[in-house]
Design goal:
Number of domains: 2
Strand order of the largest sheet: 3-2-1-4-8-6-9
Number of strands: 12
CATH architecture of the largest domain: Alpha-Beta Complex
Order of helices and strands: HEHEHEHEEHEEHHEHHEEHHHHEE
Largest sheet: 7 strands, mixed
Distance between the termini: 37 Å
């Protein structure tokens, strides 16, 4: 077990160091985008976010031709009223239609938005994301420069509550420490996909060729599945650090964080067998070394320190919080608990999100 842990930690540190020096970041480049662009925003009970996300969307610069389309997915909190007062020729509010059997709500909302969009670039944007003024233009400029068909700029994750400060930094760290990103950018293998649906940009032609959200209508991890679908269809793209152009506060309280992770973690690793493998890897790479260090084993102490270095490297590149890095084993323990909770609730048929069963 000691050798397994040491091997896993070595890989984590190697990948973290490699990505720290080589991972791409979206930066301001002042390059205008002449192609047409559609910003597609699904909303379901987003009264706290509607004005903020729209304000940032309308403020986008260096886009010669863009539209903003929002679908209000049967909100009951006043979101619809906010959308009704928006008066701008670039804006379109799309009424929701009843959710068909076999579809998850967000996937159906995104498909409806895409069906109304003939623009060359589709920008899938979550309502809790806040864009810098040239975010979309800068991301598309990088996509075009690299000859990609899609790009997934990973926003800076904002954490306010104690549990969020522990768990949320793991989002960036998980991809930063697990794959050599620059070496797999042009890979067409679905196994090396990393993506974040908070901000996802794709050429419309490739989205349609891949089958769109229609092909993944029941998938709870829609961003990863869309990226896999695109790769299978021959599209090229990658996740990149988007912390300079966008930020996102996914969960404003502990209950919503627990519910949010619980809805998806059962599927995040391909299903229950994959989740069990992931739990084992997380335990032996991040918790077992700390236990060994407490028991006085020197390798455990060095392993723990290596993990902290890995976390700090990821935080430095992605503008994530550094304060929870020393508590990495505790954060991983919470994550494992959320994975187990998610599997249990799914098997019991008790998973739901925003009032809908999953």
């Amino acid at each position: 077990m000691d050798q397994l842990s040491q091997a896993l930690i070595s890989l984590i540190l190697i990948f973290s160091l490699f990505n720290f020096f080589t991972a791409r970041s979206v930066k301001s480049n002042r390059t205008p985008v002449s192609e047409s662009v559609a910003l597609l925003i699904p909303m379901r009970n987003e009264i706290e976010n509607a004005e903020g996300v729209l304000s940032a969307a309308f403020a986008q610069v260096q886009l010669d031709n863009f539209k903003i389309r929002v679908l209000d997915d049967e909100s009951s909190d006043g979101t619809a009223e906010v959308l009704k007062i928006v008066k701008d020729y670039r804006f379109e509010s799309i009424p929701a239609t009843p959710l068909p059997e076999g579809w998850l709500g967000k996937n159906y909302a995104l498909q409806q938005l895409a069906n109304r969009s003939s623009e060359e670039f589709l920008v899938f944007l979550d309502a809790d994301v806040r864009l810098e003024k040239s975010a979309i233009a800068d991301a598309i400029a990088l996509l075009k420069k690299e000859g990609w068909d899609y790009i997934s700029p990973y926003p800076r994750q904002i954490a306010s509550t104690p549990i969020a400060k522990l768990v949320q930094p793991l989002l960036q760290w998980s991809w930063f420490a697990s794959l050599p990103l620059r070496l797999i950018e042009r890979s067409k293998s679905p196994r090396t996909v990393v993506a974040n649906g908070q901000l996802f940009i794709v050429r419309n032609s490739h989205y349609q060729r891949a089958g769109g959200h229609q092909a993944i209508k029941g998938e709870v991890i829609d961003d990863m599945e869309l990226a896999r679908l695109l790769r299978k269809s021959g599209a090229i793209g990658s996740v990149v650090d988007g912390s300079k152009i966008a930020s996102c506060e996914m969960y404003k309280d502990s209950d919503s964080l627990i519910a949010g992770y619980s809805k998806s973690q059962w599927r995040a690793f391909g299903g229950t067998p994959g989740a069990l493998v992931a739990i084992s890897i997380l335990f032996f790479s991040s918790i077992y070394p700390a236990i060994s260090a407490i028991q006085g084993e020197s390798w455990g102490l060095y392993g723990y320190l290596a993990l902290i270095i890995s976390r700090l490297l990821a935080a430095a590149r992605t503008k994530s919080t550094i304060f929870s890095a020393p508590l990495h084993p505790l954060a991983i323990a919470i994550w494992i608990g959320l994975i187990i909770r998610s599997i249990f609730l799914k098997r019991m048929g008790r998973l739901e999100w925003r009032g809908r069963a999953i």
